[in-house]
Amino acid sequence: MTEVIESLDEVLGSGAESMLREVMKRRLLNGVAVGVIRNGKSYIRLAGDGVDQHARIELGSVTKTYTAELLGILAARGIVRLDDPLSRFVPGNRQAGPRPITLLDLATHRSGLPRVPLGVPLLSLDPYASYSEGMLERYLIRKSLQLPKQPKYLYGNLGYSVLGYALAKAAGTTYAELLEREILLPLGMTETALALGQPQPNLLPGYSRGGLRTPHWHFQACAPCGGLCSTALDQLKYAEWLLQDPQRLAMQAQAQISGGEIGLSWAFFPGGRICWHNGATFGFSSWLSIDREHRTALVILSNRMAPTLLRALAGNFQRFLDGRPVVPLRGDYGRTLATMLDVYRFLVWPFSIVLSPLVGVIARIPLLLRIPVLFALGYGVERLIALFK
Prior knowledge:
Blueprint: E1 2-5, H1 9-12, H2 16-25, E2 31-38, E3 41-48, E4 57-58, H3 63-76, H4 103-107, H5 133-142, H6 158-171, H7 175-184, E5 193-194, E6 206-207, E7 213-214, H8 223-226, E8 228-230, H9 232-244, E9 255-257, E10 260-262, E11 267-268, E12 274-280, E13 285-291, E14 296-302, H10 307-322, H11 335-348, H12 352-355, H13 357-363, H14 367-387
Parallel strand pairs: 1-3
Antiparallel strand pairs: 2-3, 2-14, 4-8, 5-8, 6-7, 9-10, 11-12, 12-13, 13-14
């Protein structure tokens, strides 16, 4: 049974509630649900218009932890192995080699694949809606599924989209059906579903970092990397399940990366006691962390794109749980800059398919030179729009 509380101080200690109220007063978030598991009990603190226990938000990359759990489940049954080559699950790919990409490489972001699929309009406000499984299969059939000479950690969405595709092939079903069968139905997570185009009951409106209303995201082939919508209640069910076996495969360190270690999708705070993952779409943010030693969990869901702020809040809420000094919240976490860039993004959106290839070009420009380049590009878009007035 989950208890709805009026103040975070009831669970985290004196000062936690004032921190949350400060964030809401400064309008850094539109709505937020904070879930805490402590001493075997679950609590939820709700704030903001329209936010209740059953309000859904887009989880974004927290979805990757579900895909990682599916990998762990299928590995435990012997259906797949972590060292299975990806090519085993790609019909038509015959490009054998000495260093094949494995499922473990995909799950730890060390496959060498690009961050996002080629052809995804990154400047769109709904970038993954049109990327189909057929497009993904054609990419994989043509691609040499070999590791680069010096594989490096590169967090991305394509690798987890491919991992979900491979797991579905191994199980002889679709990713959506596999997820439903292995996790959502057994846990009674009736308010959690993939955003595959169907209506999502009680889905909150989403807001950009600068506070503008944004369209919801939809997924096809990239659902395994970020397609879930869920509620605070369901995320607490998921966290409770994770805490039942804190030594589960996905939460074990699997690879060394710069600054620490990584499990199957999960990152670790220094010391390895707490594993975490966050997520964001253009209108939502999410956070989930599991303290495996003290058996506590923290869930934060918001209908605003504010992943940096949620990470700062989560860090302080974890300090409250641990009885350590907190860090005062400073700044607006990019809101001021985002307020200006939001207008630019909405102007560019109608031309996203044409302009998206420029994102890769701009990414190669040194940071100090990007600002004048972006201003020049913005001026060009303004002139283009003026032609049609």
